[in-house]
Amino acid sequence: MMRIGVYLDTILVPLSLFITIGYHAYLCHSIKNKPSRTTFGLNKLRRTSWGLNLNQGDDKKNMLTVQSMRNTLMEAIFIASITILINMALAALSNNAYSARHSVFTSKFFGSKSDNIITLKYGSASLCLVLSFLFSSMAIGFLIDANFLMNTHGEFLSWNYTQTILERGFTFALIGSRFFCVSVPLMLWMLGPVTVFLASLGLVCLLHEFDFVSKVSNLAINNVSI
C-alpha cells in the first residue's frame, strides 16, 4: 500500500505540473505570436489605444483611463494580501502535519506520508504563494507609477516610457495571479495526488476560457477592426 502511494505521488504530481506549465508556455507563445487570440493581447492593444487618447490632451479620457486601471490594481492588492494570510495558515498547519498524517490521512489515495513528502507539499505551496505576493507587490508599484505618469507624461515624459511602466504592471499582476492559481492544486496535495491531478485539469480548463478568445468573438473583433 505504501508503494502505491509513492507511485501516485511520483506519477500524478509531475504530470499535473507538466500540464500546468505546458499550458502557460502555450499561453506565453500565443501572447507573443498571436495576441489577438488571447484576452491579455487584446487588452494590451486597447491599452495602446489609450495612449493615443492621452496624447490628445482630453482630461475626461485621462480620468477614464485612470479609473480603468483600478480593477487590476485592486486585484493585485487583494492577491498580495490573501497570499500572506494563506501562507501563515499553511505554516500553522504544517506544525500539526506530522501527527495528522497518521490519524487522518491513512488511505493510499493520500499518497506518501514520509517526512520528505510532507515537507515538499507545504514547501511547494508556500513558495508559489510567496512568488505570488512578490509579483503582485511589484505590480502594485508599477501600476501606481503608471497612474501618476498618465497625468504628467504630456509635459515631461513620452508615452513610450509610460506605456512600458503600464505594461510591466499588468504583466506582473498576471504573473502574480497565476502563481496564486497554481498554488491551489499544490495546497490540495495534502488531500492526495489524485486531487492535485483533478484540480490541475480543472484549473487549465477554467483558465483557458478566460485567457483565449472564442472563434466567434475573434471574428467579430476582426470585422470591427476592418
From TrEMBL:
InterPro entries: DUF599. It comes from the Eukaryota. Keywords: Membrane, Transmembrane, Transmembrane helix. The chain crosses the membrane at residues 7-26, 76-98, 119-144, 186-207. This is PGG domain-containing protein. It comes from Arachis hypogaea.
